[in-house]
Write a structure and sequence with these properties.
heterodimer; A: alpha+beta; Butyryl-Coa Dehydrogenase, subunit A, domain 1; 3 domains; about 15% strand; B: alpha+beta; Butyryl-CoA Dehydrogenase, subunit A, domain 2; Butyryl-CoA Dehydrogenase, subunit A, domain 3; 4-stranded mixed beta sheet; 11 helices; globular
Chain lengths: ~375, ~400
Amino acid sequence: MTLSLVPTEDEILLRDAARSFLAEASPVSSLRSNRDSGKPYDTGFYREMAQLGWTGVLLPEEAGGADMGHRAAGILAEEMGEVLAASPFLSTAVIAATALRQAGSDRLADIAEGRVTYALAIDERSKFSPEGSALEAVRQGNTYRLSGRKCFVAEGSSADRLLVLARTSGAAGEAQGLTLFDIDAARAGLARQRRNTVDSRDHATLIFDQVEATGGEILGEIDNGLATLHTALNAGQAGMAAELLGLTSGAFAMTAGYLRERRQFGRTIGSFQALQHRAAHLWTQIEITASAVANAGRVLDTSPGAADLAVSVAKAHATQTAQLAVREGVQMHGGIGMTDEFDMGFYMKRARVGAEWLGDYGYHAARVAAARGI
Amino acid sequence: MLEFGDDPEVFRSNVSTWIEDNCAEALRVIPRDMREICWGGKRFAFSSDAQRDWMQAAAAHGLTAPRWPVDYGGAGLTRTQEKIWREELARLNAPTPLESFGLWMLGPALLAFGTHEQKLHYLPQITRGEIRWCQGYSEPGAGSDLASVQTRAEDKGDHWLVNGSKIWTSYADQADWIFALVRTDREAPKHRGISFLLIDMDSPGVTTRPIRLISGASPFCETFFDNVIVPKQDPAGLSRIVGEENRGWDVAKHLLTHEREMIGSGAQGLLGTRSLATFLADLDPEILQDPVLRARAVALEVDSLATEMTLERYKDMAKQGGVGHASAMLKYAGTELNKRRYELLMSATGSDGLDWDGPHGALASEWLRTKANSIEGGTSEVMLDILAKRVLELPSQ
């Protein structure tokens, strides 16, 4: 199926609506005040997103969703990235929604209506490697006991529920033998420690000590959890790529604005060719990332089972471009770019975290290489 | 024009059958030798009868210019149909039946700025491969600063008297006609005194001299005009100026966007339709064990795929009303990527790639040729200037 890479009228309307809502409801200043008060995100803001139907963007109408598809979800994530809006949107409305929908869960309406938030507990070491999961789920009758540790769990300290990738057979490093559990985050035996990450968002370390889960809480098939998660992870990675694209545009808009107004040596610094060429090069990279992100959404909507390549091109390219945009952002702002008072630092710190989450450049480039036979 | 049917799948199937019926098996080989390109024109020596027959069969149905109107020698295909035509050519390894600067550059400029009569006269000669055109833009003193062209066309009543010289005129020694930027008003500001003039290369006073390049080839020439008489109107009453007198810069800029898109979308040369992986797989398998080379190959693949999507997205945007100055981005990104690609291929082939005609054919020559990609049609630096000033609207002081 060929579908244009240019947004449809509906998508343009969605973007415009998202932009004006986010400018009011979640400007960068709200990330700053959340950081200062230690809050992971604004629950009121998330409820408003639910009222707008965003939490159901990937859910069917029967469950109260809008079923607009991954490209639309990407547009929302991009707009959130532009203002660094903090929320469990990607973890809940993109990743959990996709996994739960695929598994035929009856909790879809909880997500669509914004009543429940999710976190994905998958990493166990400093790099993304789902098949490396070792956290054990030991069967006892019809229940399982989960023991082990998960790190870098986005929304991990605040989420109501957890998707936990646990090992029911095999050894760490094997793709088979992993099972996906959907459990209440308040369960006995689970300790959640919020980390103090540079982006001021909610990332937690979770310690599981004989945490009980029932067979009914398994999503998809036993030992085949990666299949249940496959599209959900791609959706999350594409969503993060879109958020990085938005973040990049946000940082670039600030930088280009500064180049147009800041005067030194009796002229506007944006008139210096040394800076003009760097800005134009960066803009070129942003346009290329935007194409890769649009394509990832398109492929997820049209052939979700064959989206690895498109998603990884998008995440890899978005990661590189975001790093370039924030480095240039700080450098071109000069001293003011180094101050906490100025917002550019928030962009740099979120870009660093987004670069790592759900697979860094190396992970996704390797997936591209595998898909292309290099 | 052949009736291939409106339904895309019917169209595809008919096009495919037609290609198989008209393009000889012997032409359908990959990788293709770059010397097998069919340029057409009065001086062109076809590499085989099959090559000539293929060009003529396609021309008879307008398929050498798939998108041009049927009245002007094209096939009048829609964008979707053209895409299918190209896909089927690629799938069947069939070469494009005709390539030329007439098709890529002059044609689009004439379609936009020419009179109906000019189009009726010049365009079918191009689509039939009868006249080969070359481009007279740059001069020794007007490279990146193209609007400074000094080649003069003096008004002598019934004719223009042309004096001056052009440089980097691709294949001028093999071309039949040249479209040139000439100064028709020396008093006006530099952008306002230029006209877009069509000149017969057989006119007395026109001489060419090929320039040997670092690649060993001589695709570019110097072209000299020494008291060349260009009639204001030819026997059929057609003006030799495209667009208005002294407003040739508008035509030149329009044409440059086509040229830039063409260069930016980058002929992949030796790689043809082969993927980077296939090319590398044919080499010593131990090459990819080198972690640095491998990392470069993988990063190139990520960037190539993302850039391909950008070309597609911009084509979609163009359909909906144009991309304007942003097309400079495609030229910049595409050519820089192509240079990287060839640097990688040279690293990957190692000492085997160093001969002019070694186990990898013309690789070394193509590698050197790619260095011109980011110079011709406007340098990368000029593209960045355009983006900074016209798209990002950064101040000039």
